[in-house]
Amino acid sequence: MTDEDDTETNEEPTLPPTEAFRLLSDGTRLQTLQGLVELTDAQGHRSEPVSFSDLHAQVETRDSAHFNYHLQELRDQFVEQTDDGYRARYPARKVVRAIRAGTFTERAGLADEPIDGSCPQCGDADLRVSYVDEKLHVRCGACETGLTSNDFPPGGFEERSLADVLHAFDRLVRHRVSFAADGVCPECTAKMDGHVTTDIPPEWGYEALPAFDCVRCDFSVLPSFGMLLLDHPDVVSFHRNQGDDLREPPFWELALCVSDRFTSIESRDPWRVTVLVPGGDEELVASIHGTDVVDVRVA
Q: Is the pLDDT of residue 8 over 60?
């Protein structure tokens, strides 16, 4: 597909952001959206329209005229009105899910807690986890290596043990990298621009890293070159033949993911990187051009 074939979209938003947030600033409207989504979710996959009376019953106001005024304010952008009632549009569901996730309303904190596992850098079993400013950090207490630091919503702690939180965090980061490498923003689904960056904090210990930036919302994913290989079928098969399952340990325990031990920069203009992974009598060789894995073979 050429640029000329790209789907044309209206560059101006249908609703200015200030107006959208004004609509959401009223408690009755937020209750209305929450009630509408809850009633819709209760129907399962049927998604039948919700009647005015059923929706009104979800909101803390007896004045039907007052309720109707706020409901009409939400129409078009957040609520679809049909002959049979009302449906929540996608923006309404996103708002309610963000509220449920605690993205805008909750705070969480976690001190330097010991966790199971061994550091892939020094081999010591002194891993530590902390949660500050909505980021989960894993480091080695022995060699003081920071193994990972990524966004994690505070709602992810609810009704989970620490082990379950770490499992969810591991899967979340893996999927973010997979989405980004496929050119899809894991935050808003717009296109991701992949490139190689050398703008890296010195304490991270990398000369270069693949970087993916969303062209719409500026969400960024900055994995290692090794993480680009995690779900490649030939890489998965290679490790399985060695008796290893790449999904079993969290990614921060895999040297392939959190170090450049196996990475060699072959060229900088253009960027060409080789990742060599030993395994018994064999060695996996992966060639990465820019941020694209172009070849994986066993030598």
A: no
Where residue 164 falls among pLDDT bands split at 50, 70, 90?
very high
Please say if the pLDDT value at position 217 is more than 60.
yes
**DSSP string of the chain?**
--GGGSPP--SS-SS-HHHHHHHTTSHHHHHHHHHHHHHHHHTTT--PPBPHHHHHTTSS---HHHHHHHHHHHBTTTEEEETTEEEE-HHHHHHHHHHHHTTTT----EEEEEES---TTT--S-EEEEEETTEEEEEETTT--EEEEEE--GGGGTT--HHHHHHHHHHHHHHHHHHHHTTB-TTT--BEEEEEE----GGG--S-EEEEEETTT--EE---TGGGGTT-HHHHHHHHHTT--TTSS-GGG-HHHH--TTEEEEEETTEEEEEEEEETTEEEEEEEETTEEEEEEE-
35, part of any domain: yes
Q: Is residue 258 part of a domain?
A: no
Q: Is residue 28 part of a domain?
A: yes
Residue 46, pLDDT > 70, answer no
Does pLDDT of 1 surpass 50? Answer: no
| Count of domains forming the chain | 1
| Residue 97 domain flag | yes
For residue 86, give the CATH number of its domain. 1.10.10.10
pTM of this structure:
0.84
What residues make up the domain containing 32?
A: 17-101
What lies within 8 Å, CB to CB, of 69 at 6+ separation is none
CA distance 223 to 168: 18
